[in-house]
Specification:
The chain is an all-alpha fold. Helices cover about 75% and strands about 0% of the residues. It contains 13 helices and no strands. Helix 2 runs parallel beside helix 7 and helix 9 runs antiparallel to helix 10.
Length: about 270
């Protein structure tokens, strides 16, 4: 336990003595805030009580609130992956292993610290999405949904989802090791491969039986609302229940971390 706590303290020191965590966090907040404000402006103008196509309920507002997870999850994945790949890039992983004495506590500490940082990212992304959009909804006389327990449960699950994404990032970073390689893999998969696959699943139920288990789809199901599910045909095909999505997301985190431990993490450091 003492080795683990030492590794955790060292990991937090590494986080706060670098700029990547707050630079990525700032970009995420600005990106989510701008997107949420734009979406709120458009949806409130079109679907508010005074709009051309008025709708009732809080589905539109929660869709905008969930942008922090639906579009911002790539940031905790990156920060988790960079926490590992940066050590290999700058050759600090060997002193880390030597100072702790065992590799297991190092990986466990990275999962714990980066998972916690992912939760903080989730809170920041959520606040950015809500604060940037809620006044547009109020201005159009729309229900903000903030008085409903379901909305707050969605908020809680969205924060947890971001923590899980950071854990997935740690596992990916440990598996790939290359910083450039990890960034390319994360961006290509999250921004191109999975969105296109989910779009195809919206047109074909057979494909959707597979795509609903993809990490982004599982995360959206866990949160309970997503812009991707709203804009694709048929609501992006088949979706998981929220608890199933949570289990699938947790499963991804466990699988990549365990795979990293069994393969690359215990290998010699070149």
């Amino acid at each position: 336990m003492s080795r683990f706590m030492d590794a955790v303290r060292a990991e937090w020191l590494k986080v706060f003595t670098t700029r990547s965590w707050w630079v990525l966090g700032l970009v995420m907040v600005l990106y989510i805030g701008f997107t949420a404000a734009l979406m709120a402006l458009l949806t409130s103008s079109l679907f508010g009580p005074s709009g051309d196509m008025p709708l009732e309920g809080t589905g539109l507002t929660t869709m905008v609130y969930s942008l922090g997870t639906a579009m911002g999850y790539v940031f905790p994945v990156l920060i988790g992956a960079l926490s590992v790949t940066a050590e290999y890039r700058h050759n600090t992983i060997t002193p880390t292993f030597v100072s702790v004495g065992q590799r297991g506590p190092v990986l466990t500490a990275k999962v714990a610290v980066q998972g916690t940082l992912g939760l903080l990212y989730g809170i920041a992304a959520l606040l950015s999405a809500v604060l940037a959009s809620v006044f547009f909804f109020m201005g159009q006389g729309m229900s903000t949904g903030l008085a409903e327990s379901g909305t707050w449960m969605m908020f809680l699950r969205s924060v947890i989802a971001m923590g899980l994404w950071a854990v997935v990032g740690v596992g990916l970073g440990a598996l790939i090791r290359s910083q450039a390689g990890a960034i390319v893999v994360v961006l290509v998969f999250t921004q191109f491969i999975e969105p296109l696959a989910r779009m195809a699943g919206g047109f074909n139920d057979t494909i959707s039986q597979v795509t609903k288990f993809l990490p982004g789809s599982a995360s959206d199901a866990f949160v309970g609302s997503s812009i991707y599910s709203e804009i694709t045909v048929g609501g992006a095909g088949q979706t998981l229940l929220w608890w199933q999505g949570g289990l699938v997301m947790a499963g991804y985190g466990v699988v990549v971390v365990v795979a990293a431990w069994l393969t690359r993490w215990r290998a010699d450091v070149s």
